[in-house]
Amino acid sequence: MPKTELTTQQRNIYLFINQFRGEHGYSPSRNEIAQNVHLHLSTVRNHLLVLEKKGYITWNERIPRSITVTA
Question: Domain span at residue 60?
């Protein structure tokens, strides 16, 4: 279980990923995340990298819709 706190934007992205996966059965794309949380694609990428480093998700940016929630 991750121990590091999330920023507001990281929490919003994490919650959106969980909600999207629950509704659709697969992970959102970076574009879908960016549109939902109103951030630029590069900013979303950076937040995904941090979420992975903090242990909340695993993700292979070379594979579309590969975000897996680990927490």
Answer: 8-69
Contact 70, 56 (CB under 8 A): yes
pLDDT in tens, 10-26: 999 999 999 999 999 99
- pTM, entire model: 0.91
Dihedral (CA of 18, 23, 24, 28) sign: negative
Cβ(17)–Cβ(69) under 8 Å? yes
Phi first, then psi, for residue 50 (nearest 5°) are -70, -45
Q: For the chain, what is the domain count? A: 1
Is 15 among the domain residues? yes
